[in-house]
Amino acid sequence: MKSPIRTLLPALLALALCGCGTAPSAPDGHLSDYVSTLVGTESDWTFSTGNTYPAIALPWGMNFWTPMTSDREDNGWTYQYGAHRITGFKQTHQPSPWINDYGAFSVMPFTGTADGKPASWFSHKSEVAKPYYYRVYLADYDITVEITPTERAAVMRFTFPKSDSSFIAVNPYRDGMVLATRREATGFSVQNHGGVPEGFRNHFVIRADAPLLETFPTTRGQVVTLYVASSFISSEQAALNLKEVEGRSFDEVRDAAQARWDEVLGRIRVAGGTDDQYRTFYSCLYRSVLFPRKFYEIGADGQPVHYSPYNGQVEPGYLYTDTGFWDTFRALFPLLNLVYPDVNAEIQAGLANIARENDFLPEWASPGHRNCMVGNNSAAVVADAAMQGITSREDLEVLYRALVHASENVHPTVGSSGRKGHEYYNELGYIPYDVGINENVARTLEYAYDDWCIAQVARLLERPQEEIARFEKRSQNWRNVFDPETRLMRGRNQDGTFQAPFSPYKWGDAFTEGNAWHYTWSVFHDVPGLVEAMGGDAAFTAMLDSVFVVPPIYDDSYYGYRIHEITEMQVADMGNYAHGNQPAQHMIYLYDWTSQPRKAQQRIRETIDRLYSAAPDGYCGDEDNGQTSAWYIFSALGFYPVCPASGQYAAGSPLFREADVTLPGNRHLRIEAPGNAPGHPYVRSIRLNGKTLDRPFLDIATLKQGGKLVYEME
Ligand code: CA
After folding, report:
1. Tens of pLDDT, residues 543-559
2. What DSSP letter does each residue of 137-168 carry, written as one string?
3. pLDDT classification of 114: cutoffs 50, 70, 90
4. If you count Cβ atoms within 10 Å of the first and of the last residue's Cβ in the chain, which end, N or C, has fewer?
């Protein structure tokens, strides 16, 4: 006979264990406090767990601040988690250590003599690293430093010890200048690594309630507050930008910064996970809303105005920068289009301004054209926004002309803007392997997808049918570098023969930071065509499986050394799957086009659980300006934009039992996965607003109306 108490006990125990009744757990308090800005900072040039720095900033802010551990001002690895000493606090605009910084300058308080470079031991135990607030204790000087940001300014608070020789140093970097008149310092930084015309300056102004650049006595616990702002336009504009913080206390600015972060992060609320998962999710969301950054300022008339790195003039309107479209067209821009379309509307207006200020859209901007990566993926960035109705008709006409121009031209000095090899591509349908243009298969595949994107915009603008048809025809050029014998993408010579000897394990060469196993899937816009070319469902699925099954062997002879992306693939123990670099990041979702979408669900959850965390080594390769984070955000929600500009997401396996996305117009998309649990990634069926989907694809326009998306888990 069962006693009532014994039947009740398991239920009571379960309640006590999960700390909840029917409602799943959810983050408590400020979402911004779930963010660690240190994720990805345990990196160096040989091995990247993110290659990030702890950006102290507002979302999309013009200026970020970071503590520095490097004693070299031009070291892209400005802050490394394993370092012991802080060397300064830098206003930074660096999108990636490989691109490096521009317009940077730094501040450092210390006590004692001013000769030599100040540096102090510190510990992560006495460090607080949040987006809206940073604090560290400089042990050698007994000084506590605190920083809080606005979009173009910041407030710093230094708490000094008793000392007869305290000092606040300002470093304007090489060839820059700083002048101090006791409590105000003005100057400029000219630091850059290209991407700016002659005469580029970042003008800064610092006001403090203590002397700057000279020795002064302090009492124990004496607090010195600094107000710092800068402008790419003029010193007068820097003084205007300082109004973001002037007259406000440190705590007021910090509380406002936290409220802004809570609002931006709060557009996506998740529940029914663990605290570690919430930390990872919101740390990834933080990284997804930093870049591209605002490069415009607000003039005396209250209107947006910008210094143009494209023509050296001060121009009206918006401008954003510091992103590489090769990375961010994939998921970062689609995430903006879903959750933050108002921001992407400004970014698109800025791209139209760029098209008015010079002949080319950037492919890698920092702040102007930088020569980096391949492809012409500005087409995808423009097309995805246009297809979602984010871009004004007037701007879209301007942008379309720039896209068409790029399809027939290459930038005269920056080979990655426009299309290198366009003559071959437009005539032969591919860029040959043997004509001296590197990474030719990667370029061909991306141009083909980019042409498909241009065709979408052309149709939207009701361009002549023959123009639409020209781009549609070119969008099939991926077929010209597909080798039916190996079922892989492969270099092709000018005479039509495939390149030999061929190794699918060879990185670079015909590809970009990847091999044939990674690039074969770069047919975002015609997955059914790729399935058919490979020989159908079974053959295609076997090839996808093979990426995970083949050993992580590699040929690095093109580079002459093992590039960090190779190492990051190897250590993941997922065969040749290289999630740490962008070309492969959509690959898992291609199982949705086969008879085995369960394999997508399993691999997505494996990648989420294995390769992401909120620890300092929490990424599995370069984070790259929100792209690798946006993969996580989408995947944790349960879908992914395999083909930007298609209007469709491929479904995966949601991580949380509940999520709520606030859409424009205060509509809500509710995502529910009742019964979701670790280790159970499989989805039995998906219902959108009560209607069961036949296939694992979601119509974005329908989702953006709001409603309820339910994943029935197995
Ligand atoms: Ca990368």
Report:
1. 999 999 999 999 999 99
2. EETTTTEEEEEEE-SSEEEEEEE--SEEEEEE
3. low
4. N
Provide CB contacts within 8 A for 678, sequence distance 6+: 609
pLDDT digits (tens, 9 = 90+) for 38-80: 999 999 999 999 999 999 999 999 999 999 999 999 999 999 9
Q: Quote the ligand 1 centre to 631 CA distance (angstroms).
A: 13
pTM of the model: 0.96
**What is the distance in A from the centroid of ligand 1 to the CA of 664?**
31
- Measure 592 CA to ligand 1 centroid, in angstroms: 25
Distance 375 CA to ligand 1 centre (A): 14
Compute the average pLDDT of residues 311-317: 98
8 A C-beta contact, residue 114 and residue 167: yes
Domain spans, the chain = 35-265, 318-502
Find the 291 Cα to ligand 1 centroid distance in Å. 15
Judge: domain 318-502, CATH 3.30.420.10. no
The alpha carbon dihedral of 252, 256, 261, 266 has a sign of: positive
pLDDT tens digit sequence for 380-434: 999 999 999 999 999 999 999 999 999 999 999 999 999 999 999 999 999 999 9
The rounded Å distance from CA 372 to ligand 1 centre is: 11
Q: Tokens at residue 229, please?
A: 């702002």
Distance 202 CA to ligand 1 centre (A): 28
Q: What are phi and psi of 140, to 5 degrees?
A: -70, -20
Region 584-598 average pLDDT: 98
Residues 6+ apart with CB under 8 A from 249: none
Is the confidence at residue 13, as pLDDT, over 70? no
**346 alpha carbon – ligand 1 mean position (Å):** 26
Of the candidate CATH numbers 2.70.98.10, 3.30.230.80, 1.10.10.10, 2.60.40.10, the domain formed by 35-265 belongs to 2.70.98.10
Q: What is the pLDDT of residue 675?
A: 82
User: What is the three-state SS of 80-126?
Assistant: CCCCCEECEEEEECCCCCCCCCCCCEEEEEEECCCCCCCCEECCHHH
3-state secondary structure labels for all residues of 452-475: HHHHHHHHHCCCCHHHHHHHHHHC
Q: How far is the CA of 324 from the centre of ligand 1 (A)?
A: 10
